[in-house]
Predict the 3D structure of the following.
Amino acid sequence: MENQFDALDLRILQELSLNARIAFSTLAENLKVSNSLIHQRVKKLQESNVLEQPVYQLNAEVLGYESSAFTQIMVSNAVLIKSIISELETIPEIVECTNIAGRYALLVRIQAKNNTHLRDVIYDRIQPINGIEGTNTTFAFETSFRRPISVYVQN
């Protein structure tokens, strides 16, 4: 990453990872550079795909999603993974899907209204998908913290 982005880029990334809604004028002032330079650099960072779409992080509990779980998914044949992922993507309660190594090929995070809803998602929506051999679910009591990836900034 150091070869691709200079110190100013890294400082911009650090600031935006903490507050994606910061005004470019404020960012320019904080970093002691011109507003037009911030616009140019942010555009460059977007074009390089290091900056993805800024979104709000929603509080699942406040929205009524009381149950959270991680479900490992065993597949019968690795060639089916792409089609399985496509089907999982249609299930709105699945908020994240990761391809992992080991006996379980996929790990999904599920947000559900309650345990009955969670059970229904697993039994009625996930397990019937063609190519899924089995699942293993771990309940999450709470998310202790969540943070953006660290950006090393040299001073």
Q: What stands out?
A: The chain has five helices and four strands. Residues 7-47 form a domain with the Arc Repressor Mutant, subunit A fold (CATH 1.10.10).
